[in-house]
Design goal:
This protein is mainly α. The protein has one domain. Helix 2 runs antiparallel to helix 3. The chain is elongated.
């Protein structure tokens, strides 16, 4: 799941209308949100998703590969990650993506 989220972010970064420096997950999600958000999506919503992405990737999903976690805990982490990814993608306007060349 971690790889899927990172690959999604990386793919979208290349397709942003304007390239800008974005280091770290939070900056990348903020950049994508600013440039690709649907009309009506607030800055607060983007900031919340950005902070949650850091928590998911660095706190919840990262340790899962190195230590044993219970089935219920893993299921909760996967559910939270899937919901985050869905929320993130739903706030984006695909019409704002730059076409691949």
């Amino acid at each position: 799941m971690r790889s899927s989220i990172e690959a999604t972010i990386a793919t979208l970064l290349v397709q942003r209308p304007e390239q800008e420096t974005a280091k770290g997950t939070v900056d990348k999600v903020l950049s994508l949100g600013r440039q690709l958000r649907r009309d009506g999506v607030s800055d607060d919503h983007i900031a919340t998703l950005a902070e949650k992405s850091k928590d998911l990737l660095e706190t919840q999903l990262s340790p899962a590969k190195d230590k044993s976690i219970g089935r219920d805990s893993w299921q909760a982490t996967l559910s939270a990650s899937t919901l985050w990814l869905r929320s993130f993608l739903e706030m984006l306007d695909p019409g704002k993506l730059r076409r691949a060349t």
